[in-house]
Design goal:
Layout (H helix, E strand, L loop, with lengths): L5 E6 L7 E7 L2 E8 L2 E6 L13 E3 L2 E3 L6 E3 L16 E7 L2 E5 L4
Antiparallel strand pairs: 1-9, 2-3, 3-4, 4-8, 5-6, 6-7, 8-9
Protein backbone atom coordinates (compact mmCIF):
# COMPACT_ATOMS: atom_id res chain seq x y z
CA UNK A 1 0.00 0.00 0.00
CA UNK A 2 1.44 3.34 -1.05
CA UNK A 3 1.65 6.22 1.41
CA UNK A 4 1.41 8.73 -1.43
CA UNK A 5 -1.67 10.44 -2.81
CA UNK A 6 -0.63 12.89 -5.52
CA UNK A 7 -3.32 15.44 -6.42
CA UNK A 8 -3.11 17.91 -9.31
CA UNK A 9 -3.68 21.44 -7.98
CA UNK A 10 -2.74 23.92 -10.72
CA UNK A 11 -0.97 24.35 -14.02
CA UNK A 12 2.76 24.85 -13.74
CA UNK A 13 2.45 27.94 -15.96
CA UNK A 14 0.16 29.58 -13.36
CA UNK A 15 3.08 29.94 -10.95
CA UNK A 16 5.41 32.90 -11.09
CA UNK A 17 8.81 32.94 -9.38
CA UNK A 18 8.56 34.33 -5.85
CA UNK A 19 4.76 34.35 -5.88
CA UNK A 20 1.94 32.42 -4.20
CA UNK A 21 -1.47 31.36 -5.50
CA UNK A 22 -4.47 29.75 -3.87
CA UNK A 23 -5.60 26.27 -4.92
CA UNK A 24 -7.67 23.37 -3.60
CA UNK A 25 -6.54 19.80 -2.89
CA UNK A 26 -9.31 17.35 -2.06
CA UNK A 27 -11.52 20.19 -0.83
CA UNK A 28 -8.80 21.70 1.36
CA UNK A 29 -7.54 25.24 0.59
CA UNK A 30 -3.79 25.30 0.01
CA UNK A 31 -1.23 27.90 -0.97
CA UNK A 32 1.16 27.00 -3.80
CA UNK A 33 4.51 28.75 -4.18
CA UNK A 34 7.38 28.86 -6.67
CA UNK A 35 10.78 29.69 -5.16
CA UNK A 36 14.08 29.18 -6.98
CA UNK A 37 12.24 27.14 -9.61
CA UNK A 38 10.82 24.66 -7.09
CA UNK A 39 7.15 24.27 -6.16
CA UNK A 40 6.05 24.27 -2.54
CA UNK A 41 2.64 24.03 -0.87
CA UNK A 42 1.19 24.64 2.57
CA UNK A 43 -2.28 24.90 4.02
CA UNK A 44 -3.70 28.25 2.95
CA UNK A 45 -5.15 29.31 6.31
CA UNK A 46 -2.84 30.93 8.86
CA UNK A 47 -2.82 29.17 12.21
CA UNK A 48 -2.88 32.51 14.04
CA UNK A 49 -5.53 34.68 12.47
CA UNK A 50 -7.58 32.74 9.90
CA UNK A 51 -6.07 34.78 7.04
CA UNK A 52 -5.29 33.28 3.62
CA UNK A 53 -1.56 32.83 3.11
CA UNK A 54 -2.21 32.91 -0.65
CA UNK A 55 -2.89 36.63 -0.16
CA UNK A 56 0.45 37.08 1.61
CA UNK A 57 3.94 37.92 0.41
CA UNK A 58 6.76 35.52 -0.38
CA UNK A 59 10.12 36.49 1.11
CA UNK A 60 12.90 34.02 0.28
CA UNK A 61 11.52 30.66 1.49
CA UNK A 62 8.91 32.23 3.76
CA UNK A 63 5.38 33.53 3.36
CA UNK A 64 4.24 36.54 5.33
CA UNK A 65 0.67 36.37 6.57
CA UNK A 66 -1.26 39.40 5.30
CA UNK A 67 -3.13 39.85 8.59
CA UNK A 68 -0.45 40.16 11.29
CA UNK A 69 2.83 39.74 9.32
CA UNK A 70 3.82 36.43 10.91
CA UNK A 71 6.20 34.34 8.80
CA UNK A 72 6.07 30.64 7.93
CA UNK A 73 8.83 28.64 6.24
CA UNK A 74 7.10 27.31 3.10
CA UNK A 75 9.41 24.27 3.01
CA UNK A 76 8.41 22.99 6.46
CA UNK A 77 5.40 25.03 7.58
CA UNK A 78 7.27 26.08 10.72
CA UNK A 79 6.56 29.52 12.22
CA UNK A 80 9.51 31.89 11.91
CA UNK A 81 8.43 34.87 14.03
CA UNK A 82 5.69 36.20 16.30
CA UNK A 83 2.78 36.36 16.39
CA UNK A 84 2.55 32.92 14.71
CA UNK A 85 3.50 30.02 16.98
CA UNK A 86 1.74 27.01 15.43
CA UNK A 87 3.00 25.53 12.14
CA UNK A 88 0.90 25.14 9.01
CA UNK A 89 0.92 21.82 7.19
CA UNK A 90 3.51 21.66 4.40
CA UNK A 91 3.01 19.24 1.50
CA UNK A 92 5.46 17.40 -0.72
CA UNK A 93 5.14 18.79 -4.24
CA UNK A 94 6.26 17.96 -7.74
CA UNK A 95 5.90 19.06 -11.34
CA UNK A 96 4.17 16.38 -13.43
CA UNK A 97 3.08 16.79 -17.05
CA UNK A 98 2.86 20.59 -16.90
CA UNK A 99 0.99 20.62 -13.59
CA UNK A 100 1.83 21.02 -9.92
CA UNK A 101 0.86 18.07 -7.77
CA UNK A 102 0.81 17.79 -3.98
CA UNK A 103 0.99 14.65 -1.87
CA UNK A 104 -2.01 14.85 0.45
CA UNK A 105 -1.11 11.60 2.23
CA UNK A 106 2.23 12.74 3.63
CA UNK A 107 4.04 15.96 4.31
Amino acid sequence: MSSENWVRVCEQAALQEGEVIGAVAEGRPIAVYLVEGQPYATDDICTHGEARLSEGFVIDHCVECPLHQGLFDIRTGEPMCEPVTEPVRAYRTRFEGGFVEVDTAGS
